[in-house]
Amino acid sequence: MELLPWSNWLSFEVVEKYVETYSASVVVAHSLYEITFFAYDATDVEAIINDEIDILKERRKELEDGKAKLIPWDEVCKDIGFADERTEEEKELQFKQFERINADNKRVYEMLLS
Fold it and tell me: Whole-structure pTM over 0.70, yes or no?
């Protein structure tokens, strides 16, 4: 959503159920946060968005052409000094918790759209 120009945001219609569930002030606050994520001026935001999109296109082309240098996650963690001390059982338990949370979030999302 951060990669949308303000003109798109200003033309959105808000689902009434969102307002009922979260309140108008929360919906407005979230919207303001999103549209000002990169800057506080619409022209600046649009320029930054275009730059970000260009960078993403370059990274995509590198991936498609096989020229991207990929770094394994474990190596990244090691480089930044993050050691995952969890056991395999703890990792599996946390993964199951994430799956449950994701399923709960999906139900809320579907409820809001109904």
Answer: no
